[in-house]
Structures are given as C-alpha cells and as structure tokens.
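Protocol step 4 of 5: obtain the predicted structure for the target chain.
Materials: sequence only (see below). No template structures provided, no constraints applied. The aim of this step is simply to have a reference model before the mutagenesis design in step 5. Sequence pasted as it appears in the construct record:
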Amino acid sequence: MERYSDWKSLPKSARGASVAMGNFDGLHLGHQSVIDQARGRGTPLGVISFEPHPREFFAARAGKTIAPFRLMNPEARANRLAKLGVDFLYELPFNAELADQTAEAFARDVLAQGLGVSHVAVGGDFRFGKGREGDTAMLLDLGQRYGFDVTIAPLLHVDGVEASSTAIRTALAEGRPRDAAAMLGHLHRIEGAVLHGEKRGRELGYPTANMSVAGLHLPKLGVYAVKIDVLSGPHQGTYHGAASLGVRPMFGENTPNLETYIFDFKGDLYGEHVSVALVDYLRPEMKFDSLEALVAQMALDCDRARAAL
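Step 4 output (structure tokens):
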C-alpha cells in the first residue's frame, strides 16, 4: 500500500482511485462496509483519512485539552488498511487550510482536482466542509457537478447495536474486549515500538515488552490474555502472552503503559514494532503486600491467559 499526504502534487499513478472517505478510527465493521462500497470498480482502491483527527485539531485551535479517544494510531490504521487490500492511503493534513474550506471547495479542489477521484464512498452520517456544512445529499450533488460518483453506505448494526467507535470505546472501557472485537471485526490492538522500561519484570522472572499508550483511548486497566505480532526485526512472528495495562500501583504513581510478557520467548525486542491484541480481560490492577505475592499472582495470570488462548 502506498501512502500520500500531499494532495496537491500526486503522481499520475496515484490519481483516479475509487475511495472510501472518513476518519476510520478503529476500522470497525461499519468502516469496512464503507470501504467495500468503493471496492471492485475497475480502479485502484483508496482511502481518504485525516491526520491529525479533526477533533484533535479543533480542540487545539480552541485551546482545549481533551482526553485521549483514538482507538488506533496512524501506523496501526495503515497496517490494518493494507490487510484490507487498500492500494492508496491519502492521509490528508487536517490543518487550518482544510478546516476552513467550504464543502464545495473541498469537493472541487481536493477530491476532483487534487486526487482526481473516480468514485467516493462515505457512511450515512458523513459531514464535511467548514462548520460541517456538507452532508451526504450535498456530496451527491457535488459529485455530479465535478465528475465523480458517490455511494452512501448505510450504518451497520451488530447484535442490535450500531457498530461505532463510541460503542467500541465503551466496551473496552468496561473490560469487554470480545464485544469490542465483534463490532471491530478484528481484535483491538495496541501498536508501537518496544521501549526500555525499569527492568522490574526481568528481575521478577517475567521480562516484558513495554509500550506507550499515549494518545490512545485506555481500555479498562488490568491484566489481559493477549496475542502478539512482532512486525519487525529477527523475531517477527505471532505469539501468545499476558499483558498488564496500567500504572503499576506496586511501584508508586506512574504513567499508564502496556507491559507484555510473551510466553516461551527469548530475545531482544527493544525498538521493534509490535502489535498486541487484547483477547480476554482477566482481572483489575491490584496492589500486593509483597513482591512474592505479586509474582505468585503473575503465575496465576499466565495460567489463566494460556487457558483463554
């Protein structure tokens, strides 16, 4: 998959795609249905998304601080889109220029002239243009005016619940990763580089791969059964393990992070790119009376994780 951010000077080979357009945070089943509407039209398949997320841009412009809400960082989204068979990812820079464009200017200058799209698919609740003035009816009209087809994908429901990023965040915050996965169509993953930590896990006999969760919506803090994909380096492959998501209450106040113990693994993962999928929530974070009690609980956690996996 090829990634582009400069819509004003695309190579000819990257123009003319049939595209799905939206923020696509989480790439849940509803998002996938939009992408499927753009698929199989005799042209390359593209996705238009925005970086940073418009909600982050408008909060910063207003001088406001908002709680992290994203289900995916840009790399995780790109990796998932590549698995879905997308040819081109257009990550449009959401800046003042784009935010202040009228709906018509966006359709004319970005979609028609900049990207040269042949077809655009969006969800039924899609809005665009300054002040969110544009809706799906306006997009259909602008498509006729500027030479691209438009398809509107209906909202998708799973077990009577609309598949939405909001519903998925709720499921994760309540420690229901399988319910989140049912709406996502895949396990929820946290991706990033393995960072150097304080090596406590190694000293306790459970060395962990430590990852930042900065900027991401936090699932319920606690211990999870997980699947791990090592995406770079000599240890690439898929593994099972147990992970602790939280602030490590045994060791004072700490910034939340993800610490993953990989079963039956020996090797150095520092700096490598890793994707950790949350499979089952096992227990909340706890503060123990001693390190011995902590280690005993970690052994039980690993047994439960092995059984769940």
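Step 4 remarks: The CA atoms of residues 248 and 254 lie 7 Å apart. The chain has a mean pLDDT of 93.
Proceed to step 5.
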